[in-house]
Specification:
The chain is built from seven helices and ten strands. 30% of the residues lie in helices and 26% in strands. The structure holds adenosine-5'-diphosphate and magnesium ion (MG). Adenosine-5'-diphosphate (ADP) binds next to strand 1, strand 2 and helix 1.
């Protein structure tokens, strides 16, 4: 079964100037464990879509199901519960606490989830390991590169063992080398750890690493592509036909 199913989903904002359909009929199926890039020009509805997927908002009309549950009918409390159980968020700004080490930043996110201090520390160490930052655990954010800081933020987003990570322009503040580290980390979460990862991005080098690219324009999906598959390996050679006996030399 798919993890998310959007059918004719619309999100209309009422503004002073009238109604604006930020999402205008989205049909999208997302399977568990996928790694998807959401692209599109500014104002095309990317952040609005992410907010729906993150149960921060509901469609105005149409259907959005998560794991078979219709979200448009859930109360605020039920949406909050779903977010805290199943969703992790990563943003463009890392929002780490500057006076806490990497490990302490992650540990802080486990406070509501794990009672025992030692268990929290072990959990934080494990989460940093999952994003490849074990060796940086004792560093303050100011001693980490931008890419490392964002990976700490990803570890923090994993604190509740979410099934989904939603990232809105996670590499927007990074140069292309450190952006690459962050995308690789997200990709491994999806490929090796089964987390569903959905990344909004403007960066081609980020989107091209996703397993699937969804493009929005004016609140609609205008393309939904799996990457070009690698060329097929050559077909196994058929056993060689027996050679013709050579003509005897004159
Ligand atoms: P993107 O993330 O692709 O830039 P958004 O989802 O933020 O696009 O916005 C889509 C459209 O909806 C834009 O025209 C934006 O101005 C409008 N919009 C977004 N949020 C609101 C809001 N809270 N109230 C009114 N209009 C909004
Ligand atoms: Mg946006």
């Amino acid at each position: 079964m798919s993890l998310y199913q959007l059918t004719e989903a619309r999100r209309v904002y009422r503004t002073g100037a009238g109604e604006l359909a930020a999402l205008n009929g989205i049909d999208l199926t997302i399977g568990a464990g996928e790694f998807i890039a959401v692209e599109g020009p500014s104002g095309s509805g990317k952040s609005t879509l992410l907010q729906l997927l993150g149960a921060l908002d509901r469609p105005t009309s149409g259907s959005l199901t998560f794991d078979g549950r219709e979200l448009s009918g859930l109360s605020d409390l039920e949406l909050t519960r779903l977010r805290s159980n199943d969703i992790g968020f990563v943003f463009q700004s890392f929002n780490l606490i500057p006076t806490l080490t990497a490990a302490e930043n992650v540990e802080a996110a486990t406070v509501p989830l794990v009672r025992d201090r030692a268990a929290r520390q072990a959990r934080a160490a494990d989460l940093l390991d999952r994003v490849g930052l074990k060796s940086r655990a004792d560093h303050l954010p100011s001693r980490l590169s931008g890419g490392e800081q964002q990976r700490v933020a990803i570890a923090r987003a994993l604190a509740n063992e979410p099934r989904v990570i939603l990232a809105d322009e996670p590499t927007g503040n990074l140069d292309s080398t450190t952006a690459d580290e962050v995308v690789t980390t997200l990709r491994l979460l999806s490929e090796e750890q089964g987390v569903t990862v959905i990344v909004v991005t403007h960066a081609e080098e980020v989107a091209s690493k996703a397993a699937r690219r969804v493009r929005l324009r004016d609140g609609r999906v205008v393309s939904d592509e799996l990457p070009v598959p690698p060329p097929k390996p050559p077909a196994p050679r058929s056993p060689r036909a027996p050679r013709k006996p050579r003509a005897p030399r004159p």
